[in-house]
Every structure is written in structure tokens, then in C-alpha cells.
């Protein structure tokens, strides 16, 4: 049992949060009059998932020291875990007023605005965070995300925004009746790369998927958290289906991106293109179209097959699948599409309810905006990662797209992990 605040701080640093709580209880009254006593209690409760306890601890620390920006910042973060975004905003703004040069404060405030659909405010605060720390990856990633879901951005003092706007002004030529030629992809990428080189040098982005969505996928982080921690598939996922389209090269993946950007589906189904970096999941290049039933999936598949044949001048490997591929190794029958398919175990309803009560932030319905049509800076940087991946796996079609060599430490590291586990 630790008997001073310094030792308890070390416990928290080593993620021994329960022990830290017990040690705090045993300190003498003099230590308990220290605002850091309540701050450490708040931090411990925060990481134990007791958000109300965390808020109480941070509030007590603020009663003893109302000018500490860190106390406001952490309490704001605890409020955000309970979806109390007005209180979160209030605390973050107070923290910023006390310490206006902290990039993390602007980053977190931007994230709240993004969550509540206030994209303009989110962009402004992400830019401010990047001005203060140009290497702050969460802010770069957050900004690229929100830019890809925002129309008519008029901010003039950001090279990132300028590059994004110039990319979005590129006119991608497309017809659902005609084959997409190799030279068209090369010309498109050369135009993209010229904009990137003129505005941004060395900007790295650790994403490998491009999206076309009318709304954010329904709580996928929640579903995967339940699967990974409680070892069962949530109910929602039993009604999730997708069309998986496999292509043979990065050149064809770029063509599929164009199709997914331009294609018109009756229900405007969400779709994405990706390179496959997940261990124990086969394939290299994929496109996915998401549907809500097998019947809907079959209708969409019939529609896209004809278009894909026209655009690629060959039959692509298209298949209907259920939910996330990560579920298949543990539950093989989940991916069956006939009467032998796995059914949801109703006994897990109560377990889901308990999970949601403990994790309200996982079930908040984000007020998101649709992905914009046409190119975004998000897309352009993902393309570079695709080309880096192609070179690493020996897919020489990247040379048909660009004569430049692109590298990605993220892709390289993820590919090493995948190959070591396969």
C-alpha cells in the first residue's frame, strides 16, 4: 500500500488503478486537503470506467484550485464519456482560457464538435491544434476525417484545407457503360500527386480505407468491443450483410474507388475500398458494399455486377458475406447464408444491456454528415498507402499508376504483423 501522492501517481502510470484508489483512502488528512489527491482519485476512477466518480474527484480538485487547466480538461473528458457534451465544451473552453497554447485541448474540443456535427468548429480547432504541434497525429487524422464529410470549406490559412479543396475540384471522368482505362488512373493520380507535392510534403496518414457513407456505421466500435471482451457477437451484427468485391491489383483497386464514388445505388448503400492488413484474413485488395438483409444484398449485387463488367471488361470475384470477418474463426457458422446459419443467442441481451449501461459513449448516435462526393485529401493520402503496400507485396501494377516510390511506416509495420501471424 502506497502512502504518498508521488507513489500513487506511479501506480496510476503503471495502470494499477484499483490499487491507487485503495492507497488514496489510507492517506492522512493533510494529503486529502491537496487538490492533487482528488485529481488522482478522478484519474483512477476515469480509467476504471466510473465516470461519475471521476467527475466528482475532478470537481473536488477544482474547489481547491480553480485555476488548474488540467483539472478542467480531465473533467471535460469524463463528461464526454457520459455524452454530456455541453459540460464537456464548457470545461475544455475553460482549460483553453487558462492554457491557450496546449494543442491537446484544441484537439479534444474539435473532437466534441465533430461528434455533435458542428464540422466548421471542428475544423477550426483541429487546425489550431496542428498550428501548435504540426506532428499531432490525432488532430491530423481528425481534420482529414471531418474534411471528408464537409462541403464548401472557406478557410484560407491552412495548406491542408487548400490541398483538400483543390483535390475535391478535380473532375473524375466516368461512365458506367465504358471500360476504365489504365492511363485514366495514371493521369488522375498524377494530378492528385501534383497537388499534394505543391501543398504538403511528408504528411503521413495511418489509414488504408476510403469510404462513401451517408451515415456513420451503427456503433461498430461497440460491437467489436463486445466481441473482443465478452466473446459473443452482438445482436445488431446478425442483420449486417455485405458484398465483397475482390480485385487483383492496386491499379484495379483505384478503378474500383472510382466506381464506388460515382455509382448510384437505390439506397445509396455505404461502401469502402481497402487493402487487407488484418492478420488471418485472406486477400489483398477489396471493396465492400454494406446492406441490411440478404434480399437487399442480392438486388445490389445484380445491379453492380453489370456495371463492374463494363468498367473492368471482365468478371470480378463478388460474394455475399455476413458481418465482420473477424468473427468467422471463432464462429464459423455465423458466415453461413442458409438455414444452418448461426442465430443470435437471446441470453446475451442482458449482457449487452449491462455493457451499454457501463459504456454510454459507445451507443451515442453521432450527428454525422455524409461523405462528400469526389476526391478528398483523406482519399489521396490513402492512395499513397495503397501504392506503398503494392510495392511491398510485389504487385508491380503500382508502376502503371506512378513512377514515384511511396513509403508508409504504418503499412510496413502492419504487413509485418500480418505475415508473422499467417
Overall 3D form: globular
- Tell me, what is the CATH class of the largest domain? Alpha Beta
Count of discrete alpha- or pi-helical segments spanning 4 or more residues: 18
- Tell me roughly what share of residues is in helical segments: 40-55%
- Low-pLDDT ranges: none
Describe the structure.
With 422 residues, the protein is an alpha+beta fold. It folds into two domains: 5-153, Alpha Horseshoe (Serine Threonine Protein Phosphatase 5, Tetratricopeptide repeat), CATH 1.25.40; 209-421, Alpha-Beta Plaits. 53% of the residues lie in helices and 7% in strands. Strands 1-3-4-2-5 form a five-stranded antiparallel sheet, with helices on one face. Helix 4 (35-47) runs antiparallel to helix 5 (51-64), helix 6 (69-81) runs antiparallel to helix 7 (85-98) and helix 11 (159-168) runs antiparallel to helix 12. The longest helix has 19 residues, at 294-312. The radius of gyration is 24 Å and the shape is globular.
Amino acid at each position: 500500500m502506497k502512502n504518498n501522492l508521488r507513489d500513487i501517481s506511479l501506480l496510476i502510470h503503471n495502470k494499477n488503478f484499483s490499487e491507487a484508489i485503495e492507497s488514496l483512502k489510507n492517506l492522512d488528512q493533510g494529503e486529502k486537503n491537496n487538490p492533487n489527491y482528488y485529481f488522482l482519485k478522478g484519474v483512477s476512477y476515469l480509467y476504471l470506467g466510473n465516470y461519475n466518480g471521476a467527475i466528482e474527484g475532478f470537481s473536488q480538485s477544482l474547489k481547491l484550485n480553480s485555476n488548474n487547466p488540467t483539472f478542467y480538461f480531465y473533467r471535460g473528458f469524463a463528461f464526454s464519456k457520459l455524452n454530456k457534451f455541453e459540460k464537456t465544451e464548457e470545461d475544455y473552453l475553460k482549460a483553453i482560457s487558462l492554457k491557450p497554447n496546449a494543442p491537446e485541448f484544441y484537439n479534444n474540443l474539435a473532437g466534441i464538435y465533430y461528434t455533435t456535427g458542428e464540422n466548421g468548429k471542428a475544423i477550426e480547432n483541429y487546425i489550431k491544434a496542428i498550428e501548435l504541434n504540426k506532428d499531432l497525429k490525432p488532430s491530423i487524422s481528425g481534420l482529414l476525417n471531418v474534411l471528408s464529410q464537409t462541403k464548401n470549406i472557406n478557410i484560407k490559412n491552412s495548406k491542408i484545407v487548400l490541398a483538400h479543396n483543390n483535390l475535391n475540384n478535380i473532375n473524375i471522368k466516368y461512365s458506367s457503360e465504358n471500360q476504365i482505362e489504365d492511363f485514366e488512373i495514371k493521369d488522375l493520380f498524377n494530378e492528385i500527386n501534383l497537388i499534394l507535392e505543391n501543398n504538403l510534403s511528408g504528411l503521413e496518414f495511418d489509414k488504408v480505407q476510403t469510404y462513401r457513407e451517408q451515415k456513420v456505421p451503427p456503433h461498430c466500435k461497440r460491437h467489436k468491443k463486445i466481441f473482443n471482451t465478452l466473446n459473443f457477437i452482438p445482436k445488431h451484427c446478425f442483420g449486417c450483410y455485405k458484398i465483397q468485391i475482390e480485385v487483383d491489383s492496386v491499379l484495379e483497386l483505384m478503378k474500383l474507388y472510382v466506381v464506388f464514388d460515382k455509382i448510384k445505388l437505390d439506397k445509396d448503400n455505404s461502401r469502402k475500398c481497402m487493402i487487407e492488413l488484418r492478420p488471418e484474413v485472406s486477400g489483398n485488395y477489396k471493396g465492400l458494399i454494406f446492406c441490411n438483409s440478404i434480399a437487399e444484398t442480392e438486388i445490389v449485387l445484380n445491379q453492380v455486377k453489370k456495371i463492374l463488367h463494363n468498367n473492368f471488361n471482365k468478371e470480378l470475384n463478388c460474394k455475399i458475406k455476413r458481418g465482420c470477418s473477424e468473427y468467422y474463426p471463432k464462429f464459423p457458422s455465423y458466415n453461413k447464408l442458409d438455414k444452418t446459419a448461426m442465430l443470435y443467442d437471446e441470453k446475451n441481451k442482458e449482457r449487452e444491456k449491462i455493457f451499454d449501461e457501463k459504456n454510454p459513449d459507445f451507443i451515442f448516435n453521432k450527428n454525422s454528415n455524409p461523405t462528400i462526393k469526389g476526391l478528398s485529401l483523406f482519399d489521396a493520402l490513402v492512395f499513397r498507402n495503397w501504392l506503398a503496400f503494392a510495392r511491398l507485396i510485389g504487385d508491380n501494377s503500382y508502376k502503371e499508376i506512378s513512377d514515384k516510390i511511396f513509403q508508409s511506416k504504418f503499412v510496413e509495420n502492419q504487413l509485418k504483423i500480418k505475415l508473422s501471424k499467417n
